[in-house]
């Protein structure tokens, strides 16, 4: 096995693992599979986290995770798939940020790991063991990488920024007791 074969096999493993985990997370949100809340339950949770409207937010997050994850696993439209999944994970990391970095304490470690892996795959490409390669990279052109990442970054900044503003505004009305 030469270095090229090893690289392609490594990319396949990264795509299958990361894509599979993301697709399962999205299926929880969209379909209620794997003890997920489905659109209704996830929508209510999204509202509570500051993402409004909740149902639309749940649908967008679920599609980015399930769709992006499935496409990453297949190695199809890799720039868009990786960017969409990374954007969804930025939204998840924003929710977990107040808990610090480590997932053990409810932090953003896991979301960042998935997001960075998805973004890395968007930049690196799927390798030869992929549908993109089999289709002549018709939906994996070099210009698509910066375009997908830039569009996702802009949309994510707007969504997460609006969410953070809502969370700050809601917290302004709450005051800690002055004396115990």
TrEMBL record:
Keywords from the named record: Cell membrane, Membrane, Transmembrane, Transmembrane helix
TM stretches of this protein: 71-95, 107-123, 143-162
InterPro entries: DoxX (IPR032808), DoxX-like_oxidoreductase (IPR051907)
Membrane-related topology note: Multi-pass membrane protein
Main location: membrane
UniProt xrefs under Pfam families: DoxX
Compartments it resides in: Cell membrane
Domain of life: Bacteria
Family recorded in the similarity comment: Belongs to the DoxX family.
Protein name according to UniProt: DoxX family membrane protein
Protein source organism: Streptomyces thinghirensis
């Amino acid at each position: 096995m030469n270095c090229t074969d090893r690289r392609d096999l490594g990319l396949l493993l990264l795509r299958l693992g990361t894509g599979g985990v993301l697709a399962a997370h999205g299926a929880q949100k969209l379909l209620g599979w794997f003890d997920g809340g489905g659109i209704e339950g996830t929508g209510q949770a999204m509202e509570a986290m500051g993402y409004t409207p909740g149902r639309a937010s749940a649908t967008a997050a679920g599609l980015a995770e399930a769709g992006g994850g499935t496409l990453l696993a297949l190695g199809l439209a890799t720039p868009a798939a990786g960017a969409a999944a990374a954007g969804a994970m930025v939204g998840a990391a924003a929710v977990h940020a107040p808990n610090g970095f480590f997932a053990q304490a409810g932090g953003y470690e896991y979301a960042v790991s998935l997001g960075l892996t998805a973004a890395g795959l968007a930049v690196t490409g799927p390798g030869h063991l992929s549908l993109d390669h089999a289709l002549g990279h018709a939906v994996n052109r070099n210009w698509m990488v910066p375009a997908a990442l830039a569009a996702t970054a802009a949309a994510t900044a707007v969504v997460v920024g609006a969410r953070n503003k809502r969370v700050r505004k809601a917290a302004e009305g709450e005051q800690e007791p002055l004396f115990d």
